[in-house]
Amino acid sequence: MHLPSRRAGVRLTLLYGALLVASGAVLLALTYLLVLRFPADRVLVDGAGADAGTDVSGGRSGGGLPGVRPTAGSGDVFALLQEQAVRQHADQLRQLLMQSGVALAVMLVVSAVLGRLVARRVLRPLRAMTGTVRHISAHTLHERLAVAGPADELKELADTVDGLLGRLEGALDSHRRFVADAANALRAPLTQERRLLRETLVDRDATAETFRANSERLLEISERQAHLLESLLALAGSHRGLVHREELDLAPLTESALHVARPDSERLGLKVAAAVGPAPVTGDPALVQRLASCLVDNAVGHNRPGGRVEISTAVRGGHAVLSVANTGDRVAPEQVNRLFEPFRSPGRTAADGHPGLGLAIVHAIALAHDAVISVRARPDGGLAVEVAFPARTGDPREGAEDIGQLDKRTGLH
């Protein structure tokens, strides 16, 4: 049966009305059955020498009636009384049935009215919440439903919506900050390019060497812009989640990242201690490679000349763990979590090719792979970052032994 309307108020009205009508019908049916079960041949007589109101039934034996003196023709009188009682009982049943039908029809109307009133009262808080939510827009996400009352299902629903609005407000604010920071990061190299081009055009005494130097600087700025755009694309891609998964190992990906960062580490005179062991996981190879590269680049780029970088991969406690630690400037413990926000790396800007997206990319890729990140500021400066992926294979005990040996060698943990 298809209802003529899909509105919740109509459905609740029909539901409540049907329940009331069904309850009334059951009550009337029970009353009718009780009356029907009452003996139809039971009569009351007032015989001589008998107490008034003596119950007489034709079903008794012919030995006589208690308290009644038999007289001539008394059996015919009792039979007539019993027959009259049966007819009266049948007539009463017909009247009861007709009146029950009328009462049921009245009950139907009353049930519809009461069902409508109850449905409107039940849906009133929902209408209020719906109106408030419709009023809330991107500019008024700070508003909340703030429903007061007992801790029932409606209050729980309102609190859930308020929590969702709070998360949306936080996400929108984060998105706005990210867009503003990205715009500033992209504007800085564009400003430098425009200034170099203007200087080259205005300088009438420019030589071939001048043009070559400016071209090299423009090329360097262009490479920084390309690196920034790649970082932004990687960050956006990791936030969308995983599209492709395959079996891979953290060890070769980390070794590749170390190989790429070797020129910078040698230029700064850094001591790199690597203990790379098998660490199989399941994920996107490109994103995991990007995560390892960002961690290594962060450890090298945020280091001091002659400092140290220590990297390890192993299986521990059922997780494939990638650990990267470095020396460098001291970071306040309360500032550690801010490092994973875009453009929040201290001492780095887009102008030097490090806009501060590395740890933000690491955080997004780790979330996409259900990995857990733990980071702490080292007392003597620098950070120790550990990313624990759900392991694909491997013996956790062997991984624990490998990590224990690494801890003794590096002294990081």
UniProtKB/TrEMBL annotation:
<feature type="domain" description="Histidine kinase">
    <location>
        <begin position="181"/>
        <end position="393"/>
    </location>
</feature>
<dbReference type="Pfam" id="PF02518">
    <property type="entry name" value="HATPase_c"/>
</dbReference>
<feature type="compositionally biased region" description="Basic and acidic residues">
    <location>
        <begin position="394"/>
        <end position="413"/>
    </location>
</feature>
<keyword id="KW-0812">Transmembrane</keyword>
<dbReference type="GO" id="GO:0000155">
    <property type="term" value="F:phosphorelay sensor kinase activity"/>
</dbReference>
<keyword id="KW-0902">Two-component regulatory system</keyword>
<dbReference type="Pfam" id="PF00672">
    <property type="entry name" value="HAMP"/>
</dbReference>
<feature type="domain" description="HAMP">
    <location>
        <begin position="120"/>
        <end position="173"/>
    </location>
</feature>
<keyword id="KW-1133">Transmembrane helix</keyword>
<keyword id="KW-0808">Transferase</keyword>
<dbReference type="GO" id="GO:0016020">
    <property type="term" value="C:membrane"/>
</dbReference>
<feature type="region of interest" description="Disordered">
    <location>
        <begin position="393"/>
        <end position="413"/>
    </location>
</feature>
<feature type="transmembrane region" description="Helical">
    <location>
        <begin position="96"/>
        <end position="119"/>
    </location>
</feature>
<keyword id="KW-0418">Kinase</keyword>
<dbReference type="InterPro" id="IPR003661">
    <property type="entry name" value="HisK_dim/P_dom"/>
</dbReference>
<keyword id="KW-0472">Membrane</keyword>
<keyword id="KW-0597">Phosphoprotein</keyword>
<protein>
    <recommendedName>
        <fullName>histidine kinase</fullName>
        <ecNumber>2.7.13.3</ecNumber>
    </recommendedName>
</protein>
<dbReference type="InterPro" id="IPR003594">
    <property type="entry name" value="HATPase_dom"/>
</dbReference>
<dbReference type="InterPro" id="IPR005467">
    <property type="entry name" value="His_kinase_dom"/>
</dbReference>
<dbReference type="InterPro" id="IPR036890">
    <property type="entry name" value="HATPase_C_sf"/>
</dbReference>
<feature type="transmembrane region" description="Helical">
    <location>
        <begin position="12"/>
        <end position="35"/>
    </location>
</feature>
<dbReference type="InterPro" id="IPR003660">
    <property type="entry name" value="HAMP_dom"/>
</dbReference>
<dbReference type="InterPro" id="IPR050428">
    <property type="entry name" value="TCS_sensor_his_kinase"/>
</dbReference>
